[in-house]
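Entry 14. Structure prediction run on the chain below.
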Amino acid sequence: MKHDVEVRIRKLRDEINRHRYLYHVLDKQEISDAALDSLKHELDRLEQQYPDLITPDSPTQRVGGRPLDQFNKVRHGAPMLSLNDVFSREEVTEWHERITKLVPSGHGLDFYGEIKMDGLAITLHYTKGMFIQGATRGDGKVGEDVTQNLKTIEAIPLHLETRESKPAIKAMVTKALAGSVEIRGEVYMSKKVFDALNRDQEKKGEQDFANPRNAAAGSVRQLDPAVTVKRRLSFLAYDVVTDLGQRTHEEAHNLLAALGFKSGDHNEHLAGVEDIEKYHEHIGTVRKEFPYWTDGIVITVNDIPTFRRLGVVGKAPRGAIAYKYPAEQATTVVEDIQVQIGRTGALTPVAHLKPVRVAGSTVSRATLHNLDEIERLDVRIGDTVVVQKAGEIIPDIVSVLPKLRTGKEKKFHMPHVCPVCGSTVVRREGEVAHYCSNPSCYAVQQEGMRHFVSKAGFDIDGLGEKILVQLARADLIKNPADLFSLTEADLEPLERFAEKSAQNLVASITASKKISLARFLYALGIRHVGEETANDLATHFGSLQKIRRADLNTLNAIPNIGAIVAESIFSFFQEKKNTGMIDELLSRGVRILVPEKARKTALSGKKVVVTGTLTTMSREEAKAKVREAGGDWVSSVSRETDFVVVGDNPGLKFDKAKKLGVRTIDERELINLMAGK
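Output returned:
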């Protein structure tokens, strides 16, 4: 066991060092910051478990890569340290308990919270108020002299002046202006500037910058200051290194403001762990509105003498941490690759992962889509991979880290027979997917049933996957039409069913018999027909009979429906098995509601996008009401979008709307527009 851990630690160190060299020395990036953080966090945890395996050259014991040779070297008077990362309340509590034990009995701790900027750490030296030198962090002890480039950043004062302040702070300012003072902070690039820079890179046919920190670092390290000035960088100060009499970190920030530096608009004094958690949650909800990127907050012991007394562990101070937000990317290990059968019979490879936290939830599986994708990624069982999860999207494997391989990894082979029914697996000409050749495969039938009763289909409350399996095993359902013949007497003998639960399920099935044409079409599971296409068909034809009679040319002529989708729809209604099932549904009481003509409102013909959570209606209800009001419900923001409705905790669509200048409205305005106001 320990030997395996030792091998893993060695490989993690080599990989982290390689990526840190690419990033800090060559201004290149192969994996995201979140993925690199995940590797460092794993290494740190392993070394904490096995402290005898810690070596002086471990990435956890150092700050950054060696300085670039093109600049003069600057030795820092006080080391520029990094911060240890934490990702949960439990880790914050553990940190708090550790440092509390190290302070004198009865000495309470308070804290100061500030934004963790996504930029480049630098230090500024002033003598008698004049800016004389600026340097990068480098390896923490020796940095790079980038004074001329920093002079191009207007947020950095070339001469310090006394700003309005309290008497105690004014005395410190006077002392700073009379002697020497060292200021530390972060050079960063705003979202607006970053987007403009990448647009310019595209026009010139050059590669985009991976992220704003990389762009800021590359801009500061330009040998020609004329290039730096075009990048319109900014600066946020976070500490005064020189002892001017400040006793708290909060006082240091007040001093920075008095000296003319921007030091954060969202900083807060925090009494303890509860306040830290509330501050973390608050910044998490508003950070998307910031004009710059941030991936967390910094929490510092407020009392400076106590902070200094706590000392340094490795290359990080004990008295401060970076409390990060859940990353949308992380690294983990592929423990197995298995296939699952979809409602169309397609075999989808799924990676079974060592559980890892991504975007606030634990991920243990990720889709690999098809064999071509596996071969493109060259992912193998046992590989360390970068996984990505944005919002509610199913996690994806973004890339493989081949340098962490041990030689024990195994290649995946698509099975030749269906793992459920044993039928031959085929790959249709011109398609990337593999399929079970048996249309009666149990897995295909079950996925079809699950799709049929889903929220966007018949939406039968209480009829989940486990109940569907139970009904199939009891031989009560073979196809969707059988659901509408179920009685309470059929259900009561089944395990977990009692008289009341049987009544409730039968009532739900009965209530679902009235259904819109669009939802009925979606529930049928026609290949390539999702919610939007089903709605287009319902709006265009107005009745099921007309769709059943439509020829291929008619289907091809419908806007938003291409040749492949049209062929799929036409073929579906040509198969007697499918039309027979539809007739059976209708004979068992399913009633398809005639689509109502859209009302003339202020939304008529307008494209509407919703981001965030609405309070008075569900997303499905909002979608239906927008369409009833003549609006066009769309899923992505473009210059053609007319309205972006912003609910609670909006996502990236809100950012894109602001970027494109698309009109944003709240839920109340949407309701008024739907009502014709």
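The chain has 25 helices and 26 strands.
Filed with the rest of this week's runs.
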